[in-house]
Amino acid sequence: MTVQTGDKIPAGTLKTMGAEGPQDLSTDDIFAGKKVLMFAVPGAFTPGCTLTHLPGYVVNADKIKAAGIDTIACMAVNDVFVMDAWGKSQNAEHLLMLADGMGEFTAALGLELDGSAFGLGTRSQRFALIAEDGVITHLNVEPGPGVDVSSAETMLALL
């Protein structure tokens, strides 16, 4: 079942690249006591994600944070090394790049995407959410290909 507005973010663990290498972050570490805008992409380095989705958040990071967001997080069902390299290649140093390597958190959200037709396996749907202290206040899931309802510009307008 897909999470809805008003639901608490499910408990889970994601990975990010720390100064000493990969580190675990619990959903409490990410969301507790904060206002977070998290967006998810089907895959790092894929065309729509690299050319449109992530760049919108990189360019608008200052505006998003000025509108009251504590953390902008980008998540994909990729490993932490890929997410780190992708973030560096896109100048996303102001974003928290999160790896859901096995797709467990994505499954807990109910937002899986079957990318097997493209050789990707199970991935995340393209979506964006805003959560306050771990409770989802906005959830925008793309209804098909493209970047519209989960874009940085759309989410910024909700703040």
From TrEMBL:
State any single GO MF term: thioredoxin peroxidase activity
The answer to whether the entry has keyword Oxidoreductase is: yes
EC top class named in words: oxidoreductase
UniProt EC number: 1.11.1.27
Question: Residues in the active site?
Answer: C49 (cysteine sulfenic acid (-soh) intermediate)
Which GO CC annotations does the UniProt entry carry?
Answer: cytoplasm
Q: Which domain of life is it from?
A: Bacteria
**Thioredoxin domain location:** 3-159
Q: Quick one: where's region Disordered?
A: 1-20
Q: Which family does it belong to?
A: Belongs to the peroxiredoxin family. Prx5 subfamily.
This protein is called Glutathione-dependent peroxiredoxin
